[in-house]
Amino acid sequence: MANSDSTVSLKLLVDSKRHKVLFAEAGKDFVDFLFTLLLLPLGTVIKLLAKHGMVGSLGKLYESVETLTYHYSNMFISCILTPKPAIGGANVLHLLAGDEATRKVYMCRSYHRYVADDSRAICPSCKSAMSTEVPHVAPQVTSGSSSGEGGGYVKGLVTYMVMDNLEVKPMSTISGITVLNKFNVKEVGDLEEKVVHLGMQEGISLLKASLQSNYVLTNVFLGKKVA
Ligand SMILES: [Zn+2]
What we know:
The protein is of the alpha+beta class. It has a domain at 41-82. It is 32% helix and 16% strand. It has eight helices and seven strands; from the N terminus they run E-E-H-H-H-H-H-E-E-E-E-H-E-H-H. The protein has helices at 28-39, 42-50, 57-67, 74-81, 94-97, 173-182, 200-212, 216-221, and strands at residues 8-15, 20-26, 105-107, 132-134, 160-163, 168-170, 191-198. The strands form two sheets. The protein has a five-stranded antiparallel sheet with strand order 6-5-2-1-7, sandwiched between helices. A two-stranded antiparallel sheet has the order 3-4. A hairpin with a 4-residue loop joins strand 5 (160-163) and strand 6 (168-170). The structure holds zinc ion. This is DUF674 domain-containing protein. It comes from Pyrus ussuriensis x Pyrus communis.
C-alpha cells in the first residue's frame, strides 16, 4: 500500500560481539525497494540527498536548478523536480519521498471527463484550467498472489538474503551456513536475530549509505558508522 507511514520489515542476523549485520532475511517488498534505487534518475537521487545534507558538486548543480527555475522549460522542471523511477511498478517509492511520490491528477471545475498531470492544462471541453486536484488511486500490490508474481520487480513468496553490502540472493539454509563460515562465526551464542522496519528515514539513510559504504545494513539499522 502506498501510504507514507507504511514500513517494510526485515529480519537481521547480527553478530552481537562484532556489532555487525551478517545478512538480512527479506521479502519481496525490501528487494523491490533496493531495485527501485537503481531505477531512480540521478537528479532524483541528488534531490533526495540534497535535502538531507548531501555535499559535493552534484548537490551544487541541483541547487542551481532550483534557484534558476524561471530559465527552464516546464517539461524539464517537472522531470527534475518530481521524483519517479524510470520504470514504474514497485509501490515503495514513498519510503524515499513520502507524499511527494504520490501521483497528483487534476480535472476542470465542471469535472468533464479529462484528467491532467499538470494543473495548468486546459480542459478540451470547457476550455478552463484543469486546476481541481482529484484523488489518484494506486493499484493494489498483492505480494501473496497465487502466481507469486505480485507487482514490482521480483517474485513474491520467496525469501531473499541481502548482504551488508546489498548483494541480493535467494535465501537457503546452505547459503546461511556459508555466510557464517565466511565471517568466521564460531559461537552461535554471539548471533542475534533482530526484526527492523524500514520507513522513510531509514530509506533515505540507506540510499545515502549505499553510495558511501559496504556496511549499509550495519550503518542504517545498528547506527554504526563502519568505513
Ligand atoms: Zn471542462
